[in-house]
Design brief:
Strand content: 15-25%
Largest sheet: 7 strands, mixed
Order of helices and strands: HEHHEEHHEHEEHEHEHEEH
Helix content: 40-55%
Number of helices: 10
Number of strands: 10
Number of domains: 2
Shape: globular
Distance between the termini: 43 Å
Structural class: alpha+beta
Length: 252
């Protein structure tokens, strides 16, 4: 029974992200020992649902779905995305950890990878006024609150970008009408400065999504309780969810 559940979870997650690393599998399997982890991992490899995603230059264990695995996922009603280039796996793995850990905390209703979001927007024909203008978030989460959805974009900023690129990103988010906030998780202080500079230069609209900053490592390790810089206050996703729920209860 446990192995069947793990297989379902692994197929569903790989369909959403396009890949499965051993570290992510460990997060969903939570094996009791290294031996059981290896046994589960080998079971995936021999299931005919997964195959290695290999490039000679990179020596890491990454799996993707076979055609049989993709058909299984579609049978579950899970959209299937293409695998990323192996060079992007580390970045996308960080985004997946955030989504998985927030899902496990019960603070979000759902999360979508960048690839899934692109698929949905292209399928549904969302206009530029409603959705992103050329910039899709690394993941999009929907908070677990009653009433209207609260949607938050998350950007994983491992390395700095040219100022012009941050100008484009801020412009894109400033015009996204059905988004409540965007969290920039960064590991270099000048990234926050560059983003704030872009907000000033573009006269970022007061009606735009709230722009929030946080430390990358802390956020990946514990996204529920990592310190978020919201305007002049320090909050976290747990307190934000609680605050929204309280306000809506009072308003009701």
């Amino acid at each position: 029974m446990r192995e069947a559940k793990l297989l379902f979870d692994a197929v569903s997650l790989t369909a959403k992200t396009g890949f499965l690393t051993k570290s992510i599998f460990r997060e969903i399997a939570k094996p009791e020992s290294e031996r059981s982890e290896q046994r589960f991992w080998q079971a995936l490899n021999s299931s005919q649902l997964f195959q290695p995603l290999r490039f000679i230059k990179y020596n890491i264990e990454v799996l993707r779905l076979t055609s049989k695995g993709r058909q299984m996922a579609l049978g579950f009603g899970t959209p299937v995305v293409s695998s990323p280039h192996i060079a992007n796996v580390e970045h996308d793995e960080m985004a997946a950890f955030v989504g998985l850990r927030l899902q496990q905390s019960g603070l979000i209703r759902s999360w979508s990878s960048e690839a899934i979001l692109k698929q949905e927007i292209q399928r549904d024909g969302i206009s530029a006024a409603e959705g992103p203008k050329g910039k899709y978030p690394d993941i999009l989460i929907e908070l677990e609150v009653t009433g209207p959805a609260v949607r938050v974009a998350i950007e994983i900023e491992r390395t700095g970008k040219p100022q012009k690129r941050y100008d484009e990103i801020i412009y894109s988010y400033g015009g996204w009408k059905n988004l409540d906030a965007v969290i920039f998780a960064f590991n270099l202080k000048y990234i926050e400065s560059a983003i704030r500079r872009s907000m000033s230069r573009s006269h970022y609209p007061q009606t735009g999504p709230e722009v929030i900053f946080t430390d990358l490592k802390s956020f990946i390790d514990n996204p529920s309780n990592a310190k978020l810089k919201v305007r002049s206050e320090d909050q976290n996703i747990a307190t934000i969810v609680k605050s929204i729920a309280t306000k809506r209860k009072v308003a009701a």
